[in-house]
Amino acid sequence: MTIFAPRVFSGVQPTGNLHLGNYLGAIVRFVALQDTHECLYCVVDLHAITVWQDPAELKRQIREVTAAFIAAGIDPKAHIVFNQSQVSAHAELAWIFNCVARMGWLNRMTQFKEKAGKDRENASVGLFAYPNLMSADILAYKATHVPVGEDQKQHLELARDTAAKFNHDYAETIAALGHGDAFFPLPEPLIQGPATRVMSLRDGTKKMSKSDPSDYSRINLTDDADGIAQKVRKAKTDPEPLPSEPKGLEGRPEADNLVGIYAALAGTSRDQVLAEHGGAQFSAFKPLLAELAVEKLAPIAGEMRRLLADPAYIDGVLGDGAERAAAIADPILADVKDVVGLLASRRR
Ligand code: AMP
Ligand code: TRP
Q1: Among candidates 332, 335, 320, which has minimal Cα distance to 143?
Q2: Which ligand is nearest to the CA of 11?
């Protein structure tokens, strides 16, 4: 059995309005994993352009996500922070995976169905092939662990299927070229914590999302203290007080969501929050939640503003990250080409 060294990879799209769901479902987890793993965190701009992006806005948003990573506590020196399109291995490996993954697998992807909507004929080819690019992101580094929110689970399963099919289809050359019995690891999703699926503040049955037309549905990482407090105050709830156990949250999606958010921000569990606040009315609980959200998020917004005032610094971080990322991915891509039967790249 080939053993793969543990390595973490994850990505966030620079599509504007980074929100509390991105933060609690993904970025907080990214920060925590730095203590125990070698980590690569990528601003996935090639994923972003699968739907229309205004060019000037896209550049701004690439820098904004980078600033959010750093402001939240990701250390770009100890780990690698970079921009997808600056490392060509992603696009190259994605093409090879377009030839490994099957139409039937991609046809089952629920995110494509949601994003393409009714007018599927008019969706970009890139939007359909998106999961293959995501597999390439991860496997270009032979990453073993992928922290994501709940909504990415199906894409991770496809990445595992693609890695397994590649290992199987090319098993003979993989062994002959000295790579043992598996070329790629089967990457594991890390979907953990009380906020793997943060819901809209206006509707507890809908995911908090960048694309929701109502700004009151989400707390943006760039919101100021007043904005955060106001959105929490206006969040939809029900008239019942908080239960003292998680079972009492069943059938109460808005209450469940606010308790999950509180737990994630406080670094505890739903159980703990309800043990402390069970019986409280929302009129009492919301101000506490607002205060906690402001305490945790406002400093990040401030630090993001400071970083964004110096785009040259951000571009320097991304440039350095891309070089270090390419140093890992390029030799792996060269091995992939060798396995598939493509000739080695000419020297540049
Ligand atoms: P995206 O902005 O779509 O690139 O997502 C970046 C990361 O945030 C991914 O790991 C998503 O799974 C996660 N994420 C996005 N929305 C939510 C949400 N509402 N709750 C929890 N995690 C989320
Ligand atoms: N598809 C992910 C999302 O929309 C972003 C992403 C792209 C990603 N490549 C990745 C996440 C690789 C984890 C690993 O949230």
Answers
A1: 332
A2: 2
Q: Please indicate whether residue 206 is annotated as part of the active site.
A: no
Mean pLDDT score across all residues of the chain: 96
Q: Which residue's CA lies nearest to atom 15 of ligand 2?
A: 12
Q: From CA 31, how far away is CA 70, in angstroms rounded?
A: 9
Ligand 1 atom index nearest CA of 148 = 10
User: How far apart, in whole angstroms, are the C-alpha atoms of residue 230 and residue 298?
Assistant: 14
Q: How far is the CA of 12 from the centre of ligand 2 (A)?
A: 6
Interatomic CA distance for residues 174 and 181, integer angstroms? 7
Whether residue 153 lies in the annotated active site: no
Question: For residues 67 and 308, is the Cβ–Cβ distance under 8 A?
Answer: yes
Q: Is 231 a catalytic residue?
A: no
Domains and CATH numbers, the chain: 7-196+310-340 (3.40.50.620), 215-307 (1.10.240.10)
Give the ligand with the smallest distance to the CA of 221. 1
pLDDT tens, position by position, 160-200: 999 999 999 999 999 999 999 999 999 999 999 889 999 99
Rounded to two decimals, the pTM is 0.96
Catalytic residue among 59, 153, 210, 337: 210
Ligand 1 neighbours by CB, cut-off 6 Å: 12-13, 21-22, 25-26, 148-149, 151-152, 196-198, 207-208
- Helix 282-308 with 311-340: angle, nearest 10 deg: 90
